[in-house]
Amino acid sequence: xxxxxxxxxxxxxxxxxxxxxxxxxxxxxxxxxxxxxxxxxxxxxxxxxxxxxxxxxxxxxxxxxxxxxxxxxxxxxxxxxxxxxxxxxxxxxxxxxxxxxxxxxxxxxxxxxxxxxxxxxxxxxxxxxxxxxxxxxxxxxxxxxxxxxxxxxxxxxxxxxxxxxxxxxxxxxxxxxxxxxxxxxxxxxxxxxxxxxxxxxxxxxxxxxxxxxxxxxx
Length: 218
Known about the structure:
Layout: H1 3-20, H2 27-35, H3 49-59, H4 64-73, H5 82-86, E1 89-94, H6 99-108, E2 110-113, E3 119-122, E4 128-131, H7 136-139, E5 147-151, E6 154-155, H8 158-167, E7 175-181, E8 184-190, E9 198-203, H9 210-215
Antiparallel strand pairs: 1-9, 2-3, 3-4, 5-6, 5-7, 7-8
């Protein structure tokens, strides 16, 4: 399980604590009970999943051990996102990135097409730094360290790549990428037709939800 999925599991735990306690308990209460021990002692304290489950059970009685075992060992399709819904939001995709998504791209100097073909490409030289497992780029044989040098027969630019993916939406014509691998060049057919997709959270109700409270300044 990757770190982002693990964060989603903890957000799910927060949403369950709030739901099962009628809003009286949250992940903050767990953190205080679990980590708030031996104040001032910098020594290491080991723990097991049973210890985590026991602390959660002290806050809200439930079969937390079974929940954690399932969440941390399952091979489910997709990330655990139920916590968004319980905390008043839903995950959607639009063709426009959020400000934080754009800022991350600018800081890292990348074109993040993780949800729009399954790859991340450097803005300067076109080097591929990430390929999503079983995604369209993966299926096309692309791999990390490939360099995209041309898009549909024209020299690579970030805007040209995004425009080609947007233009392929709803068609049957793949985006043609010329890729350099070491000293070898090859043509890759990116068979993806979903257009540009960027994740964002959309509020599902009115008023302050669990996620609002979770992210509020302390």
